[in-house]
Specification:
Layout lengths: L6 E5 L10 H11 L2 E8 L6 H6 L5 H20 L7 E7 L2 H11 L4 E5 L13 H7 L6 E4 L9 E6 L5 H15 L6 E9 L10 H17 L8 E8 L1 H12 L3 E7 L6 E2 L3 H9 L3 E5 L15 H4 L6
Parallel strand pairs: 1-2, 1-4, 2-3, 4-5, 6-7, 6-9, 7-8, 9-11
Antiparallel strand pairs: 5-11, 9-10
Helix pairs in contact: 4-5, 8-9
Length: 314
């Protein structure tokens, strides 16, 4: 079942140059026919708030003038790339992550797009504060962009750990993929990484371990719905986070699909710290899919995941 993408919300950080999220978001909205909401958050100077407070600045009129100036810059930037009337611009005072979450909630978004920052030699450690905060608890899929997004997907790498909830996340990931790439038939691999250390190997030969895991993964995939493109079972041994990133890199995947899992308290990654590390280490684009988003039933206890998620919950 293709996941319908009718509304996309994208965070835009750079108004002075080509923001890396802007062009892919416009292209993706055009391809899917979705309404696109572009969100730019701005913060007022905070070093002299005591002085501003004494003179009564900024008052509401000044704030609205400043917002209007920011909005005009954003609309000018958009106008150079598209004249599509389905593109809406938003300028919101405050931190970026709550602004993106607020618009996503208000507009009932089906997909959120954010960019990930890279900083020199520590680029694999930094995902970006805004991206992290948007991802944490997002009720809809989030596309994290690190590279130009190819709208003709050739290779997509899904991940699974065969846990009880992973089947639903795996299915939803494929549904979203078919919504994003409805015209394509990409090669798809479903990757299962079995934790293995040569220093402390289990009491079973590595070839037998890999063969058994391959059989279990093929059984898992056989229980899933038939897809337009076949899904190939792929098993690797080693450290899961490193192996996911290495597989994406060596196979030259256009997109990696990870999932989240909601436990008591804050929502966690599908594979816990493993998937969070894989997200940080993966050099390409990543689609993060939340567990529990059932598009057939869409409810849990009479409330949808979107109903439960508020911009102030993080």
């Amino acid at each position: 079942m293709e996941y319908p993408i009718r509304t996309i919300v994208a965070g835009i950080g750079d108004l002075d140059g080509p923001d890396p999220v802007l062009a892919p978001a416009i292209d993706l909205a055009s391809r899917t026919g979705a309404t696109l909401h572009l969100v730019h958050a701005f913060e007022l100077p905070d070093l002299s708030w005591d002085i501003y407070a004494r003179i009564g600045y900024p008052d509401r009129a000044a704030l609205e003038r400043h917002r209007g100036e920011i909005l005009a810059r954003l609309e000018s930037l958009i106008g150079r790339q598209t004249i599509d009337e389905r593109v809406r611009c938003h300028a919101i005072a405050g931190p970026a992550a709550p602004a993106v979450r607020e618009i996503a909630k208000r507009e009932d978004a089906d997909l959120i797009i954010v960019g990930a920052t890279r900083h020199g030699s520590v680029s694999r450690v930094l995902l970006g504060t805004t991206a992290q905060r948007v991802l944490r608890g997002a009720p809809v899929p989030v596309l994290v962009l690190r590279q130009p997004l190819s709208l003709e997907l050739r290779r997509v790498l899904l991940t699974t750990d065969l846990s009880p909830f992973s089947g639903g996340v795996h299915e939803l990931g494929l549904d979203v993929l078919e919504g994003l790439a409805s015209r394509d038939r990409p090669e798809i691999r479903s990757l299962l990484v079995v934790r293995y250390s040569a220093e402390f190997p289990p009491q079973i030969r590595s070839d037998m371990l890999e063969s058994g895991a391959q059989a279990e993964l093929e059984k898992f995939l056989a229980a899933r719905r038939e897809r337009r493109s076949p899904v190939l079972a792929t098993v690797r041994l080693g450290d899961p986070a490193s192996a996911i990133a290495a597989e994406a890199r060596s196979w030259d995947a256009d997109l990696v699909v990870l999932g989240t899992h909601e436990r008591a308290g804050p929502r966690r990654w599908l594979l816990g710290s493993v998937a969070e590390a894989a997200l940080r280490n993966t050099e390409g684009n990543v689609l993060v899919v939340p567990a529990g988003l059932n598009q057939e039933e869409g409810v849990r206890g009479g409330r949808t995941l979107k109903d439960e998620w508020t911009p102030q919950n993080l």
